[in-house]
Every structure is written in structure tokens, then in C-alpha cells.
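Hey, sorry to bother you again with one of my protein questions. I've been puzzling over a protein and I'd love to understand its fold better. Take your time with it, there's no hurry, and the full record follows here:
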Amino acid sequence: MKKRMETIYQFDAIFDPNGVGYTVTVPKLPGLVTEGDSLKEAREMVKDAIRCYLESVLKEKAMEVFPKTRLRERIKVTA
């Protein structure tokens, strides 16, 4: 069985009390917002949200292998 190589990412998360729990944002990941009723739940929610965010970004990057627009580059070759 092949072992899957894992990458460990570290992000700063901001936990803002919102009166009924915590709203969490991650400054390095635009648009990522989640919340939890307790600090413990908010931590779990942000871990899951980051995981989903990264999976989405990696999937999108994999799709960029075949760009939708033509590329034009000057290539130098020595013969």
C-alpha cells in the first residue's frame, strides 16, 4: 500500500466573540469565515473550513494544467 505524502499547513485564525459563540476568519485565506457555539467547536469548524478551502484551491490548480485561453511565449532554443 502506498503511503500518501501529507503537507502540514499553518494559518493564523482570528476568533471574534459574537454573543452566541465565535466567528472565525483566516486572514491568509480570503473569504473563509466560519463559526462555532464554543471556542472548542469554533476550532474544529475552522480546521474543517481550511481543509475544504485548500482542497478547492488544489483542485482548481490541477484544472489549470489545460488553460482555457491560448498562451503565447517566446522560447529560445540553441541548436
